[in-house]
Specification:
Blueprint lengths: L7 H22 L5 H22 L9 H22 L6 H35 L1
Length: about 130
């Protein structure tokens, strides 16, 4: 579904933005100053993980598909992100892993699911007309 390859740029941009939002919310919730630069410091491992996943599943072929693109980008961003955080001495604790899994799942899979619902509803309306 939604396999148009020209959609990869806005999809990749949405992934980038949502990972930055996740990091900024976390920084703000824990009252860690420097929201903007701090968000980039928190986000970079997850952004790297998302990039690895994009290439691993060739997400540009179907960038808005929930499966496999959305799910693999979500899990890849968390898995690689946590490994990079651990490798660079950043905090990796179970509560943070759980929060990252839930938050990034809602963000990265969620917007794709919403797009799929909107497209499906639009197609149904077009068939009725």
């Amino acid at each position: 579904m939604l396999s148009s390859s020209r959609l990869w740029i806005p999809a990749a941009g949405a992934d980038l933005l949502l990972i930055l939002v996740f990091a900024a919310i976390g920084r703000d919730a824990h009252a860690r100053g420097e929201i903007v630069s701090g968000a980039f410091m928190t986000a970079w491992p997850f952004l790297a993980g998302a990039a690895v996943a994009w290439f691993a599943v060739r997400a540009w072929r179907s960038p808005l598909a929930v499966w496999p693109s959305g799910v693999c980008i979500w899990l890849g961003s968390v898995l690689v992100g946590m490994l990079l955080r651990a490798a660079t001495g950043q905090t990796v604790v179970l509560p943070f892993i759980i929060v990252a899994l839930i938050s990034l799942g809602v963000f990265l899979v969620g917007y794709r699911a919403l797009v799929a619902l909107v497209v499906r509803a639009s197609r149904k309306r077009q068939r009725r007309v």
